[in-house]
Amino acid sequence: MPILVIVADDQDMVRDGIAALLDAADDISVAAQAADGREAVALTREHRPDVVVMDVRMPEMNGLTATREIVGETGEDGPRVLMLTTFDLDEYVYEALGAGASGFLLKDAPVEDLRAAVRVVAAGEALLAPSVTRRLISDIAQRRREKVHARPKSMESLTPREADVLRHIARGLSNGEIAEELFLAEQTVKTHVGRILTKLTLRDRTQAVVFAYENGLV
To answer: Is the pTM here over 0.90, yes or no?
Structure first.
């Protein structure tokens, strides 16, 4: 089955272009297009897509609010949200990650990067634009660290190996790359990642990265 996608952007030409580029991939199918966040939420309820490609700034309802509604309604089993923006440090993005967005990509990214991003978040992985990953997450961590003074008890539930895997996740490594670094089978790494997310009650790898930065693991 192809990855079912909804594209939300208030600019017709941009939205049509993104939809056409994604639809041209054999494994991706665009189910619908939304001109604003409110319409994106409604279409998500109707089509139940795997991924919502969401612009940050839109009229009626912005991408942040729409993301929060979509994630809040559907939970862990719902569609993943990939945020698109022209700004590499948009204030909305900080909040979007907290609202449950699984990825963040700049609009000037190459076509194949966009398609790859959809595939990555559809598979339950996390994706952030390489140019902003470290700055973005470090800033989130600093903001939250100022409010947190004690090491969360949830960290104590991780084994030393799981903590190692979490550090590598925070560096942006894939399961295969982590397997090579730690001399483990890729399936073993995948198992560790699943346990980490469960123990820390995190939705996906994006939240795991933020958690690692918040708690000084990176």
So the answer is: no
